[in-house]
Amino acid sequence: MSEEAEYPERRKNALLRLLINELMQQIRELQAHQGPWPNEERERVERDLDRILEQVRGAALRKEGA
Hints:
Helices cover 70% and strands 0% of the residues. It is mainly α. The protein has one domain (3-61).
């Protein structure tokens, strides 16, 4: 059974849902990465995560439909 079938979507804010999905994808990619990270690659990933988290915070603080 798929995770989506087990846990129906409850989030109403489409932007927040998209951002959280993007964040989770980034985390999965980080967990799958093996070996030492070149500094540039690590810095890029950290910037991407910081950007996504900032967007999640902003979307979570805005009222839906505002």
